[in-house]
């Protein structure tokens, strides 16, 4: 594969030629949408425009029939739309509204539009998803944000959850998830099976897996920056939807014209009253090997999320926004085990957050953004088993996080080719966690800690454009007060255009992380969400530090896209419970490191009414721990060598269909002998995984005051039964008053045939 990619890169480089710009072109428009005018100009002049859709979409242009040069056309556009068009070089132009405080950057010009789907684009360093514009993706129902990200190469979910994203060998807790600047610690519903964020309240999702802006830190894998709309609607807007799991409603209300508006969104499950085939399929996977069988009035699981935002524009160059969000999952289940007394399990996962954002423009060069945020996360899990009147076992697990901070971010534009970003961030973390076991005679606190830390951050970043070169270099400095430690995180992005169709990119970055989840191989019930966040103490739980180097090529024509990227990533400071890796009688927490090397490849063919793409990911992820396994490296628990996806999207008038086939090699697992001892540590592989997903939509004909669509999705259409993980249960026995234990293995199977239906109406 590496040889194939090398040959491909050479051929693509050789095939590139220089473009000759057409001097004049014929145009004639009567109240045409500006986006169409720009698209026609790109084709006629062989140039490229960079702009934000929300700025261009409302504008219309009228042109008398005639010949126009690029300058004369741009003059007409500027006069009629009030927008500014800046020439970057001989081929690239930036279109922006100089009256808004939107930060315009030549470096962030759109390289690829329609990446996998309409509504997904790629800039120099990130992928942007606009949920409101998304076409059907295989298996995706109603633009689920986190599930949509899994369509990208290098983003996998080995356990088939929406929230369990593994990006370039990282674990899900190494992804920074922001909702209008609010740090989110619980991103999933139904134990991670669906995203915890209502896509209908989202304007755009910015996803970084490399070349991360110096403004972002705190996590070492990726950044998922979710932004809600900052526009003031001209009239009342609403949309409502219903699927086989939940219903939702989003309303946007103007209060003062062009000055003040409010948006309210809510989503609520009805699984506590009605269990559909969709819920049954998801529950069968989530609750396998548990006693959770019958959900009724007394045994139920439900989830909900709500958000609100107030947008205020007191002056032309001033924007103020207040945002709030709440995500809640609740389980209460009771049963009677054969031969024993009643068993009860309760789990409550709650995340709420608030933010205030002030954006200000000072003239043509200075921009500022000030953010104040607060996030509170609670996790409570209680399991109680009554055997007789006076004999019981109780297990209590708790996690509390309070995360608050202040950010002051600034941007100064020296010229159209040079700009500077810098800022200061002050963040506080208050975290506690506990593990408590009780029975009829005693109580044991396995772990009970509260840790506090204040992080102070300063960052500086310069962006420069020179001929066909784009550069961005910067650094982020973190000081962790409680640990008396610091980290310096350099960031580098280099981009070179090798002609009209080919772009080369190279990146380097360092990151650090002081909050993470301890993952165990030894499971208990509800293990998908039963993990606890910890705060580094500098000793037992060190700071995680990662560095990543990548290089790749993007080849783009009107109908073809090839995007290839190779990377090497190294992480230090990871921790593991020794017994979580199946070593009997060893309960130490050990520190270690891991590395991941890989290749992400996307090949896409686009036509007028269809699109097809192939994703391929090669990945080798290994880890080692001090004093463990002879200090030798072994495969990471979620290491997947090869992953392949083939998808097709087709549209017929108002009908659309998306079909995708996914295949990847199995995860590693450890082999045990009859006594529960480890024979080989992650040396064996599960069977290959494969699944067929389908989605379809029908768009209603737009009426004067409303529009809508209906659709369906199917996950695992041919109901393939595949083992996706082997989990290990620690079994304790007492013989002649001597306590011993061993491990037993349980196979966990993939999601079966899972249908879903939805309907959405927009007013």
Secondary-structure map:
Elements: H1 2-15, E1 25-33, H2 34-45, E2 48-50, H3 53-56, E3 60-68, H4 70-81, E4 84-87, E5 92-96, E6 112-113, E7 120-122, E8 127-129, H5 145-149, E9 155-156, E10 166-167, E11 175-179, E12 182-183, E13 188-189, E14 194-195, E15 204-208, E16 222-227, E17 237-243, E18 246-256, E19 260-269, H6 277-286, E20 300-312, E21 318-336, E22 342-362, E23 366-386, E24 392-413, E25 418-439, E26 443-466, E27 469-480, E28 485-497, E29 502-513, E30 515-518, E31 532-535, E32 544-556, E33 560-577, E34 589-606, E35 610-625, E36 634-635, E37 642-652, E38 655-664, E39 668-672, E40 678-685, E41 689-699, E42 707-715, E43 723-735, E44 738-749, E45 754-762
Parallel strand pairs: 2-5, 11-16
Antiparallel strand pairs: 1-3, 4-5, 6-7, 7-8, 8-15, 9-10, 11-12, 13-14, 15-16, 17-18, 17-45, 18-19, 19-20, 20-21, 21-22, 22-23, 23-24, 24-25, 25-26, 26-27, 27-28, 28-29, 29-32, 30-31, 32-33, 33-34, 34-35, 35-36, 35-37, 37-38, 38-41, 39-40, 41-42, 42-45, 43-44
Can you walk through the features of this model?
- With 763 residues, this protein is mainly beta.
- The protein has two domains: 1-101, Phage tail protein beta-alpha-beta fold, CATH 3.55.50; 225-762, Beta Barrel (Maltoporin, Chain A), CATH 2.40.170.20.
- The protein is 7% helix and 57% strand.
- The chain is built from six helices and 45 strands.
- The protein has a 22-stranded antiparallel barrel.
- Strand 34 and strand 35 (610-625) form a beta hairpin.
- The two termini are 50 Å apart.
- The model is unreliable at 1-21, 100-107 and 522-528 (pLDDT under 50).
